[in-house]
Specification:
Number of helices of chain A: 2
Structural class of chain B: mainly alpha
Order of helices and strands of chain A: HHEEEEEEEEEEE
Shape of chain A: elongated
Number of strands of chain B: 6
Strand content of chain A: 35-45%
CATH architecture of the largest domain in chain B: Up-down Bundle
Number of domains of chain B: 3
Shape of chain B: globular
Largest sheet of chain A: 7 strands, antiparallel
CATH architecture of the largest domain in chain A: 3-layer Sandwich
Largest sheet of chain B: 2 strands, antiparallel
Number of helices of chain B: 17
CATH topology of the largest domain in chain A: Rieske Iron-sulfur Protein
CATH class of the largest domain in chain A: Mainly Beta
Helix content of chain B: 55-70%
Radius of gyration of chain A: 31 Å
Oligomer: heterodimer
Distance between the termini of chain A: 88 Å
Structural class of chain A: alpha+beta
Distance between the termini of chain B: 72 Å
CATH class of the largest domain in chain B: Mainly Alpha
Number of strands of chain A: 11
CATH superfamily of the largest domain in chain B: Cytochrome Bc1 Complex, Chain C
Strand order of the largest sheet of chain B: 1-4
Strand content of chain B: 5-15%
Number of domains of chain A: 2
Radius of gyration of chain B: 26 Å
Helix content of chain A: 10-25%
């Protein structure tokens, strides 16, 4: 630029008006498009989801028979042992298929990891990739990486059992009714 | 008036029997549909024994998919309440609806298969290789575009799989979503974008529908154009390199004839054009190449229509998360991945890595990266470019074919040998009887 040439030494540290303006406008043009892109991307992460609640009533305790009952609409098993209840997820931890209940009569005998003889009357088998879970939801065969989670339960004021699938509980959890 | 009509028709068509060389080359320059063909083409480039005309076959299938897809868009409703029933209508109420749907499906499956065969052909002929000696050509780029085309083709097929909203669709998507979820750190975010929430519902359907009918077709169309353009830039199919046709560089001074172009305005500089003269035997594209392309179009369309009568598109029960079909299988071109995700869960003391991540993400990514890097790693001589099974590439061809054979074997195992609960059955064994659902 002729102006800068006259300045002599200063040409190296100064930038011309034209270049300065092109940097500024370039910054805002690119930045503007970038923000456009970000808003488009952000809109794909919904703020509100119209999905079924993760906390729901499954029925009166007296509705449940002794043993396992599959509740298809919530994809979980409610297990009743006399007056004690617990609840295991029916969603395979491998790739999300619904596991099936496999009942055994007479009970199936197997050796647990600690070496004691255990018997069980049912298991959970996944139809997609053949994962198999024990009575308590632990994996013993197939590709599933984790045990089936146990869900928290409590009684609603009207006496119905409520399951909260957001709260996972340990294998000693029982709801006493 | 008649003369004028004749002129318009001449502009839109081209002659199948050019009387002179000039008339032949003129049609490729004049006609828009032919302008992407070179004026001359070697006989070997057009031969079935070299290229198997796979690109033309794929383009035909893509055209069929575009036309049938467009019709289907009028007849399909992308909502969870109505999607399944609009497919039922296609099958039973809309005149020839079943035919359009089946043809779309057959062409889609054929396209996945032929794209894969195309990749195998390009690898075995060493057509992806770059040679320093050949000016103005960089074939690896077209190999990478081709890999992108393979991925987009599979994505198109997969997104289309969801749309009927039946059990087959729902569980294929569930498995795909959980594969994304099994990726560390970014898994949950990817899954959220893919299915638009935490469960597969209306958000998922509309996302995949838009991807299937707009985003992916536009992307694949642009990639196809780039792919074609690169073939021209690279000087035709790789076989011309093997034919020993030299391209001789000539710097030619261009006369300033067109005043409306930049060349006509520029003063002081004499514009030159670098052009490459092909030495060797070549024939006119019109009618030699155009005939082959048209014939391929007709034959492939006829074959796809015939196959439509043999392979009916399935429609299972309406989608329901309450129960999973047993066995639940992905579409056949993903069965090798399903077989991998079922077999690759790694257990080291206390640490478990899901097969979804190993078989569903790591293995296919590594395979793709290897394929992408191969043109840069391959150091075999230039003589191997454009030749089937060149002796210098014996080892890599063998390894490549082995990988292909393993993939095909896994697909076979997944398709035929996996019964209820993903148990392994020999082909002659009877599957256990599963209780029927009421």
């Amino acid at each position: 630029m002729p102006d800068n040439d006259k300045e002599g030494k200063n040409t190296e540290t100064q930038i011309s008006r034209r270049r300065f303006l092109s940097y500024i406008s370039g910054f805002f043009i690119v930045g503007g498009f970038l923000m456009q892109g970000l808003t488009a991307l952000r809109s794909l992460f919904p703020r509100v989801l119209y999905e079924p609640p993760t906390k729901f009533k499954v029925g009166m305790p007296s509705d449940f028979p002794e043993g396992v009952r599959f509740i298809p609409e919530h994809r979980l098993f409610v297990i009743r042992d006399n007056d004690r209840f617990h609840c295991i997820s029916a969603i395979c931890t491998h790739l999300g298929c619904t596991v099936n209940l496999a009942s055994y009569s007479p009970p199936k005998e197997y050796k647990s990891t600690s070496g004691t003889e255990v018997s069980e009357t049912y298991e959970f088998h996944c139809p997609c990739h053949g994962s198999k879970y024990r009575e308590n939801g632990n994996v013993y065969a197939g590709p599933a990486p984790k045990a089936l989670p146990w869900f928290s339960m409590y009684l609603a004021p009207d006496g119905q059992i409520v399951v909260d699938t957001n709260v996972h509980v340990g294998h000693d959890f029982r709801l006493k009714v | 008036m008649r003369e004028r009509l004749k002129r318009i028709i001449r502009k839109l068509t081209w002659t199948y029997n050019p009387a002179t060389e000039r008339e032949a080359s003129d049609s490729t320059a004049r006609n828009f549909l032919l302008h992407w063909f070179p004026a001359k083409v070697t006989a070997k480039s057009m031969s079935f024994s070299y290229s198997m005309l796979l690109g033309t076959i794929i383009l035909t299938l893509f055209s069929i998919l575009t036309v049938t897809g467009l019709i289907l868009m009028f007849l399909y409703v992308p909502s969870v309440e109505r999607a399944y029933w609009s497919i039922k209508d296609l099958e039973f109420a809309i005149p020839y609806g079943w035919f359009i749907r089946d043809l779309h499906r057959v062409a889609a499956q054929l396209m996945v298969a032929v794209v894969f065969i195309h990749l195998v052909r390009v690898f075995l002929t060493g057509a992806y290789k770059h040679s320093e000696k050949i000016v103005g050509s960089y074939r690896p780029l077209n190999w990478w575009i081709g890999l992108a085309l393979l991925i987009v083709t599979m994505l198109l097929s997969y997104t289309g799989y969801l749309l009927p909203w039946d059990q087959l669709a729902l569980w294929a998507i569930t498995i795909g979503d959980h594969i994304a979820l099994s990726a560390p750190i970014v898994g949950a975010a990817i899954s959220k974008v893919l299915i638009g929430g935490t469960i597969i519902d209306q958000n998922t359907l509309i996302r995949w529908y838009v991807a299937h009918v707009f985003f992916l077709p536009v992307i694949i169309f642009l990639l196809i154009l780039w792919h074609m353009w690169r073939i021209r830039k690279d000087g035709g199919l790789a076989v011309v390199e093997a034919l020993g046709i030299e391209r001789i560089r000539e710097d030619k001074v261009v006369a300033k004839a067109k005043t409306y172009s930049l060349m006509g305005i520029v003063t002081g500089i004499t514009p030159t054009i670098t052009q490459y003269r092909v030495r060797g035997t070549a024939v006119s594209s019109s009618p030699n190449l155009t005939r082959r392309v048209l014939l391929t179009f007709v034959l492939v369309t006829a074959a796809a229509m015939a196959l439509t009568f043999l392979f009916k598109a399935p429609l299972e029960e309406p989608a329901s998360l309450m129960w999973t079909p047993n066995p639940a299988k992905a579409p056949w071109y993903f069965l090798w991945l399903q077989e991998l995700v079922a077999d690759t869960t790694i257990r080291l003391k206390g640490l478990t890595i899901s097969g979804g991540f190993v078989g569903g993400i790591i293995i296919p990514t590594v395979l793709l990266l290897f394929a992408a890097a191969w043109p840069l790693i391959d150091r075999t001589p230039d003589q191997a470019i454009g030749v089937w099974f060149h002796k210098s590439r014996r080892l890599q061809n063998a390894v490549f074919l082995l990988v292909c054979a393993v993939i095909i074997a896994l697909i076979y195992v997944g398709a035929v040998m996996r019964g209820p609960y993903w148990h392994l059955y020999m082909p002659w064994q009877q599957w256990i009887k599963m209780p029927t659902r009421f």
